[in-house]
Amino acid sequence: MGNCCTGSAKCANASTPFESKVTSRSTASNNSNSTTTANKLASRRSIGSSSALSGQIAGSDVQVQAASAGTGAGAGLKSFSMSELRAATKNFGSTSYLGEGGFGCVYKGWIDEATLAPTRPGVGRMVAIKKLKEESFQGHREWLAEVTYLGQLHHANLVTLVGYCSDSGANKLLVYEYVLRGSLENHLFRRATQPLSWPMRVSIAIDVARGLAFLHSRDDSPVIFRDLKSSNVLLDSDYRAKLSDFGLARNGPTGDKSHVSTRVVGTRGYAAPEYIVTGHLSTKSDVYSFGVVLLELMTGRRAVDDARGGSAATLVDWAYPQLGDRRKVIRIMDTRLGGQYPKKQAQEVAALALRCLQNDPKNRPAMADAVLPELEQLQQHNSHKSSSYTSSTPAPVHGQPGRRHSKSKS
Ligand SMILES: Nc1ncnc2c1ncn2[C@@H]1O[C@H](COP(=O)(O)OP(=O)(O)OP(=O)(O)O)[C@@H](O)[C@H]1O
Ligand SMILES: [Mg+2]
Description:
The chain is an alpha+beta fold. The protein has 2 domains: 49-177, 2-Layer Sandwich (Phosphorylase Kinase, domain 1); 184-383, Orthogonal Bundle (Transferase(Phosphotransferase), domain 1), CATH 1.10.510.10. The chain contains 11 helices and 16 strands. The protein is globular and about 60 Å long. The two termini are 38 Å apart. Adenosine-5'-triphosphate is lined by residues 13-15, 98-103, 106, 128, 130, 159, 176, 178-179, 182-183, 231-232, 234, 244-245. Residues 92-375 form the Protein kinase domain. Residues 22-41, 373-410 are annotated as: Disordered. It is an enzyme of class 2 (transferase). This is non-specific serine/threonine protein kinase.
């Protein structure tokens, strides 16, 4: 693919921004086709009131050092110069280009393992470098949120931020560990990719649940990811999943509060209905988005696919009525699985998705106390009796119970 950031072309896989109209189920139990005009939704790239772990993200000119004062944010991250990153990416050339999102283009680069200095291709450690596009309206806020959150949060199921670049000009970049297999979105929806087997999909769901449980369970204040979707789940060489893109993350409620009030940002098809309508954000908003990702893993269909038309365009509207009926679940499963999945396990995942997608956030299960242990149990239970079940697709490299990642806090 060409180098999008030097031209005006928009890449096809860039995320769909919110629109002023969203379709939502009117009750938890019906499949309403009604289109609800929610309050005008801000653009995907518009942040009104993001705050970062220990302090408010201030204006655009605030540097990492100021944001991180006293918080530890940014500590341990390398501050790269623009010339170093040019050297690492062959001047952001088309051969280094990986893809494009709302923030900007992403390039592959090479740095020395020990010194983090740029090297030549094939030497040292591979990194992914995101370059804020000039026309990005609020991109600097997202850039700062990424540095602030990922500077402090470390976990096997979160992407690692290696460093950043913020020069005196408008250049804002982020340097991440390179996650070899790219996004879950590409693996689920690109026809050219080999289908993920069912055990892989369950493992990926568990990894995502681990990442979210870690964020939601922080002692001082929960962190709400706010932008969970399959394009923000990256898969490493062993198909371990990592959450990426913390530009919209923000601190959750503390004490007795059930939510924080914010401007509505996120991605159509994934955002929780109450958040879209009221701006009330809670950890349960992430649980809803997780339910949508579970549906994508089960069905192989996109959260929103306007080409399908009507209620079939929105995955939740299309799948929801089938989730509570164990016999109907089989009808919505991804045909690329070729029927190679244990039916009972698929029904259990469907039942969990149904709970995650409840309209009332109070009725959704918590990530750490319910979703994660239930998925782990389901996986473990199946591995004991999987001798009668074989997958037609390559066996997952990971997914063995007992060899999962452990939590680590910074
Ligand atoms: N750390 C990484 N390692 C490897 N590839 C990456 C990494 N980060 C991003 N990519 C690639 O770059 C592409 C664009 O990523 P990006 O996060 O900018 O956009 P997006 O997730 O598609 O959209 P959005 O801006 O809404 O998050 C991804 O599809 C992925 O293939
Ligand atoms: Mg992304």
